[in-house]
Amino acid sequence: MLTEGVSLIDSRSDRVVMEPNPTYWNPARRPTVRIVYDNVIGKDEGIKSVAAGDGRVDVVFDLTPAEAKSFPDSAHGKIQTKKAKTILTGVFNENRPASPWRNPEARRALNLAIDQAFVLEHGAHGYGTVIPAFIQPGRYGADPDMKPMPHDPEGAKRTLDGLGLGGRELVFVASPAWKGVVDAIDQCLAKVGMGCHFVSAKDEPPAEFDVKLEWYFDWTPQYPVACVHREFFGRDATLRQGPEDPKFDALYEKLLHTPETETEGVVREVERYLQDEAKALFLYSPFTLFAVSDRVEFTPYDTCMSELAETRIKG
Amino acid sequence: MDAQATGDPGGGQPWGPHNTVTVVDPSPVNWLSITWNTMEEANRVDHDGIGQPSLAESWRWLDGEILELKMRDAVYQDGEPFNAAMFKLGFDKVQEWTNPHPPGAFLNFARDVTCEAVDDRTIRMRFPSGDSAALMKLRGMHLPSTRFWNEWGFVDPKTGSAEGHW
């Protein structure tokens, strides 16, 4: 139960304190520890504190791949990873005048130019899973027959040259956390006679950008299309960088009016549509990364939420 | 939500580093994590990402339009019993607003959706056009106690509105 502090969309207090509710009905989720969210110390100091074992911080959320990789050998803490329901994907800018990315052939060719496994390994230290579209293999809605797009630099170059895109240096907008990913994409593009440069998403993106990398997560109880796919391509999408897509909207409507027991087939249909139309630059599903003190038994959630009911102090 | 929003019984065991876990969570949706740590809904998503019953212990579709939920026998931190009427209260409160959920209107129940507490433990929701997203939407419909609604609620004191503030 919350006993001190606030965390609102636009503000948060210096700390938020939650006490365990000893009468909670579910013994398996009955908390045993007081949780303090420290909103002052900051991520860098928090990571150092976990590594040093100075007792100020026990868990730091949302580490970047670079932060996880550089976590020092420590007798007091470690990096914990979680295969969460996340995606890192490139949104094509179809809004700019005469955008080449309105052409599915161009979008597909750029996908073929990218070696997803290379990007994951060299851009994110391997912290993730290559995925065919937006859903990880084995998850609800994943099509077992769908594979990630192949890496075919020769075919990609033929198409991109044919479309007049050969030799271009593309503009990729991304959070600084994903600069390594953009650098790895640049190496892939060099093999098809192209390149890309990084523009921080913290700055106002230039109108002429080509691709924006977006990280997103699925918190739903097995309803990923509403939470994730819709957010990128739906009529009310906030991440869409192009015109409305009536075919996607029709699939979403179909999903909403399909009996709940039969929805997985429609989710697979949506996934296939995304890949068939190369709706995005498909990259990988990032692990969520935590710095965790050895004195704590931390249970991360696939939803990326910092739910802490099961988190315990060891011993 | 302020410090007393979900009730603090006070007293209890002495606290110190031995039973305190300190976390740093820079996520922009930290507010949602804290809501889900301190409130409860009909259903939830477990650490493996799978939907699970929570304050509703079970549910079934009676036909293409009617979802029946059986509520759990539980008690709020402030001692108030939870029952189907509290679910109905939560539904009525969220339906007062046009777009209450920060993530967007996709979490809204249609205006023609109805909710009836059949008895202390049974809720029937009617979705006239069907809605396979119903359980996803219920995951975002918080079910706090009467004290929360009467003393705090989700209305932003600065704007007097709960739009986008649920």
Describe this structure in words.
The complex is a heterodimer of chains A (315) and B (166). The model of chain A has no long low-confidence stretch (mean pLDDT 95). Chain A starts with a strand and ends with a strand. A six-stranded mixed β-sheet of chain A has the order 7-11-6-10-8-9. Chain A is globular. Chain A has helices spanning 43-52, 65-69, 104-113, 116-124, 153-162, 179-190, 224-233, 246-256, 263-276; strands at 2-4, 15-18, 34-38, 59-60, 77-82, 86-92, 128-130, 169-174, 195-200, 211-217, 281-286, 288-293, 296-297, 312-313. Chain A has 315 residues and is α+β, with helices and mostly antiparallel strands. Chain A has nine helices and 14 strands. Chain A has two domains: 2-82 and 288-314, D-Maltodextrin-Binding Protein, domain 2 (3-Layer(aba) Sandwich), CATH 3.40.190; 86-286, Dipeptide-binding Protein, domain 3. Chain B is α+β, with helices and mostly antiparallel strands and 166 residues long. Chain B has helices at residues 30-38, 84-95, 134-139, 146-151; strands at residues 20-24, 43-45, 51-53, 56-61, 66-71, 74-75, 81-82, 114-117, 122-126. The relative contact order of chain B is 0.19. Residues 1-11 of chain B have low confidence and may be disordered. The chains are: A alpha+beta (315), B alpha+beta (166). Chains A and B meet through β1, β3, β4 and α7 of A and β1, α1, β2, β6 and α3 of B. β3 of chain A pairs parallel with β1 of chain B.
